[in-house]
Amino acid sequence: MSLVLHDVACRHRHKLVIAGVSATFGPGLSAIAGANGAGKTTLLRAIAGLHPLASGHIEGNENPALLGFLPQRTDIDRRFPLCCRDFAALGTWSRIGAFSAIPVVESDRIAAAFIRMGIADLANRPIARLSSGQFQRLMFARLIVQDTPIMLLDEPFTAVDAETEAVLIDQLLAWRDEGRVVVAVLHDHDMIRTFFPHTLLLGRGPAEFGASASVLAVEHRFPRSAA
Amino acid sequence: MLYNLLIDPFTLGFMRRALAGCLALSLAAPPLGVFLTIRRMSLTADVLQHGILPGVAIGAIFGGLSIWWMGAGGLLAGLLVALLAGAISRATEGREDSGFAGVYLLALAAGVALATRQRGIDLAHLLFGSVLAVDNAALVLMASVASLALIGLALIWRGLVLESLDPLFLRAIGQGRAGVAFHAFFMLLVVLCVVGGFAALGTLMSVGLMMLPAIAARHWSARLSGQVAASVVIALASSTLGLLLSFHANLPAGPAILLVAGGVWLASVAFGPEESVRARIAIRSRD
Description:
With about 230 residues, chain A is α/β, with parallel strands linked by helices. Helices cover about 35% and strands about 25% of the residues of chain A. Chain A has a single domain (about 5-220), classed as 3-Layer(aba) Sandwich (Rossmann fold), CATH 3.40.50.300. With about 290 residues, chain B is mostly helical. Chain B has helices spanning about 1-5, 15-40, 40-65, 65-90, 95-115, 125-130, 135-165, 165-170, 175-200, 210-215, 225-250, 255-270, 275-285. In chain B, helix 3 (about 40-65) packs antiparallel against helix 4 (about 65-90) and helix 3 (about 40-65) runs parallel beside helix 5 (about 95-115). The interface of A and B includes residues 50, 69 and 99 of A.
């Protein structure tokens, strides 16, 4: 299982934001890095099938039921009157659909995900009453419930506390050990160097893909980030 | 004394029919209203209730004062307006209020103009409802609509929750089309309920039984199921007390029921456990 990008280009509001991107995301942890406005989120959404390609093609994302996608937190209305367990249960959709009852094996999976994320005591709490760190753990719990072989994460560590970050990184490493394909949009280069062996770097020049140490080292010598 | 006040009016046949019809709608409409408020579509409901008026009037012109003709006309007009409102929302990317205002003012004017051209229509009854209008046919309409809406909502519940909360998630797992279908079916149920209520409550008040209990319920629970339950209880009580008010004070049924529901809403804003004035003051004094 892997995601292969062939010469991908995408427009955002009619403007070409990424072009000529080729990369292979195999099992394990890969990062997408680059300055603000470089098109990281657009590319991740394109891989998730949520944004049309202007040209090129992507292999491995054909079946949306195999893709877990973590959007940026701002996309969800947190005032929605729903408790955490029901929120995570929506992750079972691809298997049980709109009408069946939730079988025991799925409720066990949900309970296990809450324990894994350290939020077992929050199962009955309304999502409106979570801190941002707790909410991100809940989003991860839903991904665990989805149990997809490919995980696409848009800035998973933004605005979370240090303890939550440790829990989430632990989960990424577990997914890596299970042989899942994990692709994350990230800002923090130190974190990428520590945990993500492969990086796709987007910028004003051609996109670069390769071992994180060398790709990010180049970035260090010729800063691409917009001043 | 109390018996005269509370029970006596319902020994009359027309009051019993009106009560049965309104209680049936009270079970079905407020849950839809809860979803409308969560989805920030309260304005859409407003547009819909004005939108059915010309349809009801045209139905009356073709079929006379038959509830089925007027209901069918209202249903068609409501569905058309629902599609139009959706198109306006998409075209303006959420800045829909001026487009909505245009639609409902136009629909109100057209509806009133059409209705006054048709002899035999009592405009006040059409707009504000009348307990006397709830004959057996109207009662059957209200009860059928309520049953359909309840069953329909139960069927799409999970899909509607997910589509309201996180439409992106549905698209990401390749169920974007299912999401659109849930939304469309939901709007159909809303139109059905608005049409179902017009005989007793009037076209201008029909949405009130859907929206006022729903927005009041927001202050009673932080859970969807809790809000739905609270909205139904509030609607049942408002219908009963409102019909009594209508009887004793000789008011049209629609405004009487909505006055009670509106009173409950104001009390909920002030004293409810969630997001109420009382709750805010409690938080402030704790800090």
